Amino acid sequence: MPKQKFNNYDIRAEVACLRARLVGTWLTNVYDRDKTSFVFKFTRSGGATESGEGEKINVVIESGTRFHCTSHARASASGGGGGKASSTDQPSKFNAKLRMHLRGKRLNAIDQIGSDRAVDFTFSSGDTEHHLIVELYAQGNVLLLDKDDVVLTLLRTHRDDDKGVKILGNHRYPRERFRTHKRVTLHDLEGALVGRARGEDTLAGAAADSNSNSNSNSTATDAAAAAAAPRAPATLREALCKGLGQNPPLVDRAAKLAGLPMGGNTPLPLKEDSSSLNSNSNATAPVVERLLRQLSVLDDWFEGVGDGSAVPTGVVTRRRKPGATGDDDDAFVVDDFSPLPPIDAIDSNANSTATDDDDARVQAYESFDDALDAYFASFETQAATRQRERAEKAVVDRLEKVRSTHWSPYDRVRVVNADP
Fold it and tell me: How crowded is the C-beta side of 222, counted as CA atoms within 13 Å?
């Protein structure tokens, strides 16, 4: 299934791209695309175009899914996205609130909240400061906050009393619930491989320490420790996702670059394999060290993109349609996007996007933002084509059903007069 949502690395890269392009621009208007997506129109003053007018930039924001600049015209329900507004076009109530507080204001900052899947667009400053929060996890959300982080309006309310989380109007927005970035250490990695979450010790270990200080009830203590011990993860993907909060695609990437051909599906405990890099039989330390090295490379990239020392590029992967033949563009559909170079290019030590998979094509872009725009434009075209094909098939199926139910007089005569 084609990728549709951002992970935290995608968000890190896109925030860096938009920060370079949008900070300092002015919001001229907001348009509805549908109930959960909007087009924000920004203008940069100073004669940035040949006509002498300010540069105009459109940004698509879709709750729970994406945010990026776009050069493709998209129709909207309130006269935006290249369409012409009419007197009957009215913005949604949520959009009207956004226009009231944000239109005509300067965009001063764009930040990822911690290292999580949420973005903060800061407009204006001082008493007129406002924050547009875009959440890109679960069902997603878009919220407008004042300078004190009090929610003025939002798309979706949410309340979890067990965790003490209230996402409601006129309530303070809880930023502290988001994760912060922490580099992976050898201790974290070794703990995750045995089922221990980062920053905590196993209950079994605590029980063992207690048992060492007391010689009584040793049998009961051992049983309690065994029952309290976490279940050991079965695969590398399960271990790193649960223990370190990593994303499955990044786990696959790090594992393959560390010399584990099965990627995230590598069973645990880790063992050296003859097909892996730097194979060292009867020892598991080398593979753990290689895995830590690749996770550290991802940490370096994440931190570098955040502080501006690394520039995120983009790649779009297209895969052959089931049953399609030939090398025409129509035989391929978009499948994935990433700010990280393909593994094949890294393995070959070349700045290329070649791949050994005959059913895949990888196209590189100088900017991750450009890659996103191309990906989702193609994705929407494919979705519209599938919808049209389904509608045509439904019409044909209805016609066949009518024909089978209501025979024509000619068909009836032909059946009656048929030879026995």
Answer: 5
Q: Where are the beta strands (DSSP E) in 242-338?
A: 314-320, 332-338
* pLDDT for residue 341: 85
b vs e for 188-216, b when ≥16 Cβ sit within 10 Å of the residue's Cβ?
Answer: bbebbbbbbebeeebebeebeeebeeeee
Q: Determine contact, residues 41/30, Cβ cutoff 8 Å.
A: yes
Place of tokens 């519209």: 384
Locate tokens 């006269």: which residue?
79
Residue ranges with strand state E in 146-216 = 151-154, 158-160, 165-167
CA–CA distance, 369 with 299 (Å, rounded to integer) = 21
Task: Supply the pLDDT for residue 346.
Answer: 57
Mean pLDDT of 190-214: 61
Contacts of 200-204 with CB under 8 Å at 24 or more apart are 202/228, 202/229, 202/230, 203/228, 203/229, 203/230, 204/228, 204/229
**CA-to-CA dists, residue 398 to 170, 225, 394, 402, 406, angstroms:** 52, 64, 6, 6, 12
Q: What span, in angstroms and rounded, lies between the C-alpha atoms of 111 and 283?
A: 43
How many helices (H) and strands (E) would you count in the chain? 11, 14
Q: Which residues contact 182 (CB under 8 A, 6 or more apart)?
A: 198
Contacts for 387 with CB less than 8 Å, ≥ 6 apart:
none
Q: Is the dihedral of CA 139, 144, 146, 147 positive or negative?
A: positive
| pLDDT at residue 240 in the model | 93
Phi, psi of 55 (to 5 degrees): -65, 130
Question: Contact 287/296 with Cβ under 8 angstroms?
Answer: no
Q: 88-101: per-residue pLDDT in tens?
A: 478 999 999 999 99
- Ramachandran angles phi, psi of 151, nearest 5°: -70, 120
CA 40/CA 61 separation, integer angstroms: 8
119 - beta bridge partners?
A: 112, 134
Give 310's pLDDT tier (boundaries 50, 70, 90).
confident
Report the pLDDT value the prediction gives residue 332, as an integer from 0 to 100: 85
Mean pLDDT (the chain, rounded): 81
179 touches 116 (CB < 8 A)? yes
Q: What is the DSSP letter of 77?
A: T
CB 247 within 8 A of CB 8: yes
Q: At what angle do helices 285-307 and 8-22 cross, to 10 degrees?
A: 20
